[in-house]
Amino acid sequence: MQDQYNRKIDYLRISVTDKCNFRCMYCMPEEGVDYIDHKDILRFEEVIRICRCAVKLGIHKIKITGGEPLIRRGVCDLIREINRIQGIDSITLTTNGYRLQEFLPELKEAGVTGINISLDTLDEERFQKITRHEGLEAVLKGIHEAVRIGISSVKVNCVPMGVNSDDFAEVAMLAKDEPVHVRFIEMMPVGIGKEFGRIEQKEIMKKLEEKIGPLMPVEEKLGNGPARYYSAQDFQGRIGFISAMSHEFCQDCNRIRLTADGYLKLCLNYHSHLNVRDFIRSGVTDGQLEEFLREAVYHKPRRHGFEEQDNEEREDRRMAGIGG
Fold it and tell me: In a 10 Å sphere around its CB, with 0-12 CB exposed, 13-18 middle and 19+ buried, how is residue 118 labelled?
């Protein structure tokens, strides 16, 4: 598939739930939220059908997200079925890592080729402040076990905030002795994220280089997304940056998103308005569904427009609700 700006769209991120066992301060209020009604959540057979039609149109990379995907019952069975679709090249997972270790054998058997773990600090006290949950040790065990059992791509995603600004180098050190890629993601003004200031890539790099030495850019492609990677001396893994704000990468965007309640999101910063769920449940054929997806992708926005205050279509839902 190509959109009207000639970008090739081959990557689909699928949120399977808006629920999460953490309450990360930049994603969800401490008291929790009202979750999507069960009847409005896409059934697995509907997700699989959407994937089959999307693959016919050129999608061949799938990411399973949440909320926290590992709390939805049967998610490994879903991954296994998606992986059986001819044309799928890779299927990866993003998780907070709290239950990762117990699921790793089944995830590997189901065909997961890569796992991204969200981790913003290695300090237990700050971990609990950020996530409002205990569990740092469990997350670290999941990371190390994923490497040990041979998951081909293990990445750690860190969102720098004021409360964890002293932790950059410590998190980056996870890439030193194991082939783990640590990526730093600029805070985006989506949902509660609007309430936080962002620390830009150049500042993060400066702090990192003070502790771990020079970072040298590398050309290798490590995954499906827009991260730019650097090597550090004697590090097995790479240090990456996803900098949607200071280094906009919209011109190379290759992705669309499917929310847990069945909306097709063409851009992270635009509210959902393409209801695939109701379209499917109206009794359409696969051919009609394919045409729906093709037409939607063609109209993907040119850029995210995060800085445009007058953008009337800006996303106002929290990140957990859209599978960011």
Answer: buried
118 assigned ligand-binding residue: yes
Give the SS3 label for residue 38. Answer: helix
Q: Is 250 annotated as a binding residue?
A: yes
Task: Assess if residue 71 is contained within a domain.
Answer: yes
pLDDT for residue 252: 82
CATH code, domain carrying 42: 3.20.20.70
Give the pLDDT score at 97.
Answer: 98
Residue 1: inside a domain: no
Is position 239 within any domain?
yes
Identify the helix (H) or strand (E) that includes residue 11.
strand 11-15
Residue 272 pLDDT exceeds 70:
no
Is 158 annotated in some ligand binding site?
no
- Residue 23 annotated as lining a ligand binding site: no
Tokens (6 digits) for 270:
């635009």
20 marked among binding-site residues: yes
Within a domain: residue 226? Answer: yes
Residue 188 annotated as part of some ligand binding site:
yes
pTM as predicted: 0.90
Q: Which domain holds residue 118?
A: 11-321
Q: Is 5 annotated as a binding residue?
A: no
7 is in an annotated binding site: no
Domain count, the chain: 1
pLDDT digit string (tens) for 32-53? 778 899 999 999 999 999 999 9
| 67 labeled part of a ligand binding site | yes
52 labeled binding residue: no
Residue 32 gets the label, from left (phi > 0), alpha (psi -120 to 50) or beta, of left
Q: Is 84 annotated as a binding residue?
A: no
> Is 94 assigned a ligand-binding role in the annotation?
yes
pLDDT in tens, 215-229: 999 988 787 777 899
